[in-house]
Amino acid sequence: MNRRPWLTVTIGLLPVLCVWVAKVLLHPRPFWVVFYDPETLYFYNALRIATARWPLPLETPGGPVILLSVPLAFLTGRTPLTFDAFRLLAYSLTFALIIGTAYILARVVLRDLPPILGAIAIFTFFAAPQALEYITVWSPEAIYFVVGSLAVIFLWRELVEDRGTLPAALAIGMCIATKFTFVAWVPAHLLAMLVARRWKKIPAAIAGYVAGFIVFTIPVIPNYGAIFGRLFQFASRSGEYGSGSSALTAGSVISVVGGAVMSAKVWHLAIVLIAAGAMVAAWRKRELLPPLVFAIAATGATYAVAIRYMPPRYILANGVSVALLFAIAAHGIQRRAMLAAVCILAVLVGWKAIDSDLRTHRARIVENVASHHAIHALVRGVVVYGWRAPEPSFALRILAYDDRWIREIEKRYPKDGDYNAWHGGIQLPHGARDWNYAVLNDEDAAHVPGTRVARVGGFQIIRR
Predict the structure, then answer these.
(1) What pTM did the predictor assign?
(2) Least confident residue range of 1-5, 130-134, 319-323, 384-388
(3) Residue-number span of the structural domain to which 34 is assigned
(4) Is the pLDDT of residue 231 over 90?
(5) CB-count exposure of residue 241 (10 Å: 0-12, 13-18, 19+)
(6) What are phi and psi of 425, to 5 degrees?
(7) 20 to 30 Å CA-CA from 210: which of 238, 273, 372, 431?
(8) Is 355 found in the same domain as 390?
(9) Distances 193 to 203, 212, 346, 396 between C-alpha atoms, Å
(10) Closest C-alpha among 448, 459, 461, 407 to residue 429
């Protein structure tokens, strides 16, 4: 029995801590590089609640993220100019929550495992594609380990220790309130309950899903119509953000699934090996069969939910279910040779995940900072920036949707406007009557007149 949960947590999260320190303290990503759209969405919605207003509709509920964001917004000040301070607090909170959740996981689900195997189970989530990337992106994905692990803890107590169903159902509702991709856990849980002969508790489970979702989406209840409308749009289309064809063909399914597998071959090979080991362990210890059924069904159903469009973040919930599979499989690891082999494979897979994440992090910073300097060498006067432009003013302006906040941003960036393709086109800074240059991607540039004078990365520089 593992009587040293802190040792398990320390070993499992030490590599994650090193990545966090490298990306947050040593080589931080400027807020205007790549991920400012999810981060500013939750930042501004927190500011809206902090100023007694309802948040704007999002394409995903994100309730727990908004709830966590509000106290951070109060701490950093209710102004867009404190966005960087907000991000630092958010990343710190993320890691603190990860540590706390991992400790509870070690005390409950991993308590019968040696510390090294429990540590590998914890790190399994972070070996999933984009898991390490999103612990420093304030978004629903940042807390996947936290909400998913809490659900797994209550599921374990229900299915293995024969405790109550309602806490597990409420936790799954909380997961769905974080992002709709967790809806795949509902049929997986119900199936596991049938296997565990707990079918009489199914009505309580369904009530728990609904109650958990409502409680953790209280900040966005007025936006239910827009949220569920966007959900239908995403589910009925095969492109990014609800675009593309409504047809679901065998060819499109093969393309989507094949692309996801081929882009993360090592991870998917690990899933197969871990699932096989979990099946063997559950055959030997039949009390592990219900959580095994849940983990396998949840993993498969997550792919099914994202069958139309499958970037890694849409199937990141599988990081938690595969970690549960490893925890089950670890019960069958008894020989030292097998333990050594598992540790070696874990180090190799972990090293690949960490190396890939840090390389991507550095490359994004270098590329965007270089583009930022190149653009500023070419433009002057009043400049209008468009989507994904590597520019601080644009990152703060584009999703503010509040004239008071825009005026505050213009105190720091008085000559910068933005091109918002969704709402009104060109937005000039206060007091400006016209613009001198525009920095736009090819799609937006087609709608703006002027002389194309240069190109920097994926952006056209247009002179009025």
Answers:
(1) 0.93
(2) 1-5
(3) 5-361
(4) no
(5) exposed
(6) 75, -130
(7) 238
(8) no
(9) 11, 18, 31, 47
(10) 407
